[in-house]
Design goal:
- By secondary structure, the protein is α/β, with parallel strands linked by helices.
- The longest helix is centred in the first third of the chain and has 13 residues.
- The radius of gyration is 21 Å and the shape is globular.
- The relative contact order is 0.09.
- The protein is 35% helix and 13% strand.
- Helix 2 links the parallel strand 1 and strand 2.
- The mean pLDDT is 89.
- The chain has two domains: 107 residues, Rossmann fold (3-Layer(aba) Sandwich), CATH 3.40.50; 83 residues, Rossmann fold (3-Layer(aba) Sandwich).
- It has a three-stranded parallel sheet, with helices on both faces. A two-stranded parallel sheet has the order 1-2. The protein has a two-stranded parallel ribbon with strand order 3-4.
- The chain contains seven helices and seven strands; from the N terminus they run H-E-H-E-E-H-E-H-H-E-H-E-H-E.
């Protein structure tokens, strides 16, 4: 949401359109200010997370709703949001062909639009497969990328070690990676961290204050 907010604010800055960010992690004063701006109609465009669905979020005249990653939101949630206005048009977006999303495109009486091209300037993705035991080669490759000023993130399936699964976890791997890349800033991110801390870490990674992010999915 923060990334969309920043991008849209830059794009619409010369059109005198006020853009408001609404997330659950906002401080109370900022959240109250955002809610008042939305209710009064001072905000022409609102970018947010699940906080937009809350009963306390009132719109002066909601006309158009865009839901990205629509499969992550419930049917009732989407309907309640639509009911916050009259004659609201809705655009559902998803790149994940889960059964329900696929069924909606076939039988849901929806007009379907397909985006078949990559965004302008998108760099092609190259995927490499490394075997266990070749970690040093992977680290060497990543170090070259870091020297170019690029960033790195690692994704692991577990937050902490488990006796049930022989899988690597974020807590232990973050400690290891801090040793391997001691000259770089390494941070850890997972769902059990406080919301404000997660927000801060993401901001720091986005602003390149963090070189390496170790996270769960």
């Amino acid at each position: 949401a923060r990334q969309h907010y920043d991008n849209l604010s830059n794009i619409l800055s010369s059109f005198n359109i006020s853009v408001t960010l609404l997330t659950g992690s906002l401080k109370k004063r900022d959240k109250d200010q955002a809610l008042e701006s939305i209710k009064s109609g001072a905000s022409g465009l609102i970018v947010g997370t699940h906080a937009i669905f809350y009963e306390s979020t009132e719109f002066k005249r909601l006309a158009y709703v865009i839901i990205d990653e629509q499969h992550k939101f419930g049917v009732i949630q989407r309907e309640e949001l639509k009911n916050k206005g009259e004659g609201v048009d809705m655009l559902l977006m998803s790149a994940t062909p889960i059964p329900r999303s696929f069924a909606l495109t076939l039988f849901g009486d929806l007009e379907v639009s397909l985006i078949k091209t990559l965004p302008k300037g998108r760099i092609p993705v190259t995927t490499y497969l490394a075997k266990h035991g070749n970690e040093d080669k992977v680290y060497e490759f990543l170090r070259k990328e870091l020297l170019k000023g690029h960033q790195v993130y690692f994704v692991y399936p577990l937050i902490s070690s488990s006796e049930k699964f022989e899988l690597k976890d974020v807590n232990n791997m973050c400690l290891k990676l801090k040793e391997v890349f001691s000259e770089y800033v390494v941070e850890m991110l997972h769902s059990k961290l406080p919301s404000d801390l997660k927000e801060e870490i993401m901001k720091n990674f986005y602003s390149k204050k963090v070189d390496i992010l170790v996270a769960t999915s």
